[in-house]
Amino acid sequence: MEPLRIYIDTSVLGGCFDPEFAPWSNGLMRDFRAGRLVPVLSDVTAAEVASAPEPVRDLHQEMLALVGTVLPVTPEVLGLVGKYEAAKVLGTRFRADMQHIALATIAGVDSLVSWNFKHIVRLEKIRLFNAVNVESGYRELSIRSPREVTTYEGP
Predict the structure, then answer these.
(1) Domain range for residue 131?
(2) What is the pTM of this model?
(3) What is the pLDDT of residue 49?
(4) Is 111 a domain residue?
(5) pLDDT digit string (tens) for 66-84?
(6) Which residues are registered as beta bridge partners of 62?
(7) Which residues contact 47 (CB under 8 A, 6 or more apart)?
(8) Strands (E), the chain
(9) Average pLDDT in the 80-106 region?
(10) Is residue 102 in some structural domain?
(11) For residue 20, which phi and psi values (nearest 5 degrees)?
(12) 155 within domain boundaries
């Protein structure tokens, strides 16, 4: 069985250095390093990480080596983001969050993982994003926190 493809946003990388989130974010990184899960990254994550502290940038570089490819923001992605905006899932200020969702949806990943409980990992928002996804011809996107996805296995 192929390992699950997991889209990670910037909060997951930063979570490795935050005492509240580190056990689960670091568990997820162990899963990626061991090949139990496959990380999926995007141009949006790269842009956000550019201004992050050096340890976060270094971890991003390490994950890039495991990924091989990075999802680009395409006209299809921007079109889906426009549909999220039209449905008022989030305000235009949170375009990057919507781009993460659209990228993961179009790439057909097994799950998007985030610590963003305000705009992404929130039942009401997940339902709204998925209503637009299905209406637009895509499948529903599984959205979880790292705590729900890490395998809890050692190194």
Answers:
(1) 4-148
(2) 0.95
(3) 96
(4) yes
(5) 986 799 999 999 999 999 9
(6) none
(7) 96
(8) 4-8, 37-42, 70-71, 111-113, 143-144
(9) 97
(10) yes
(11) -70, -35
(12) no
The whole-chain average pLDDT of the chain stands at: 95
Which residues have a Cβ under 8 Å from the Cβ of 105 and sit 6 or more positions away? 80, 129, 133, 138, 139, 141
At 40, is the secondary structure helix, strand, or coil?
strand
- Output helix, strand, coil percentages for the chain, rounded to the nearest 5: 55, 10, 35
CA distance 11 to 14: 5
Tens of pLDDT along 12-51?
A: 999 999 999 999 999 999 999 999 999 999 999 999 999 9
What is the total count of domains within the chain? 1
Residue 28 lies in a domain: yes
CATH of the domain at 127: 3.40.50.1010
* Residue 22: C-alpha distances to residues 2, 34, 62, 72, 122 (Å): 26, 18, 17, 28, 20
